[in-house]
Amino acid sequence: MKTITVTIRTSILLMIIVMIYQLAVTGIAQVFMPHKANGSLVYDGNNQLIGSELIGQTFVSPRYFHGRVSSIEYNAASSGTPNYAPSNPDLLRRVQNSVTKWKADNPDVPVNNLPVDLITNSGSGLDPDISPASALAQIPRISSLTGIQKNTLEKLVIEHTQGRDLGLFGEERVNVLKLNMALSELLAK
């Protein structure tokens, strides 16, 4: 009986410690970085929720920049992607379909200049970013469809390119949602 009592007391004590820890971490995050603590949500000029900086979205209009391929259609309820081996026929088929779609949507850009992140999934299937090269490769299509000069679009990509974290970690990247919001502002003018 003594063992059961000790076990119950220890369990209750540990639950209380864990709850206090969670409340403390949440409180600290809300005070020091509320934007990140609340999901890095992005709003438009009318304070309308557009999405999150952390979760990619599907942009189907050819007038906008497109993100990476997502096997889960950017459904944040679960993340992940099939982890196919390079020899897997399903991976080859998916990449071939992506290349075929790229050729149809971007006839002015040679396939040998196609950045690999535009035809491959990220590990989570939710990646909101593309490489600067992927954004730049889409400029001919967007320029011809919108009438916006290529050099203006290049400046837009450069303005929205984020460097490596702490100058060391990760790669340069462009958040597709933020880039497309800036493009929408240009189109509205």
Automatic annotation (TrEMBL):
Keyword annotations: ATP-binding, Cell membrane, Ion transport, Membrane, Nucleotide-binding, Potassium, Potassium transport, Transmembrane, Transmembrane helix, Transport
Pfam family, one: KdpC
Location of this chain's protein in the cell: Cell membrane
Membrane topology: Single-pass membrane protein
Transmembrane segments: 12-33
GO CC annotation: plasma membrane
NCBIfam families assigned to the protein according to its UniProt record, in alphabetical order: kdpC, PRK00315.1
Protein family per UniProt: Belongs to the KdpC family.
Function statement: Part of the high-affinity ATP-driven potassium transport (or Kdp) system, which catalyzes the hydrolysis of ATP coupled with the electrogenic transport of potassium into the cytoplasm. This subunit acts as a catalytic chaperone that increases the ATP-binding affinity of the ATP-hydrolyzing subunit KdpB by the formation of a transient KdpB/KdpC/ATP ternary complex.
PANTHER family recorded: POTASSIUM-TRANSPORTING ATPASE C CHAIN, POTASSIUM-TRANSPORTING ATPASE KDPC SUBUNIT
Subunit structure: The system is composed of three essential subunits: KdpA, KdpB and KdpC.
Protein name as annotated: Potassium-transporting ATPase KdpC subunit
Annotated source species: Paenibacillus sabinae T27
Lineage: Bacteria, Bacillati, Bacillota, Bacilli, Bacillales
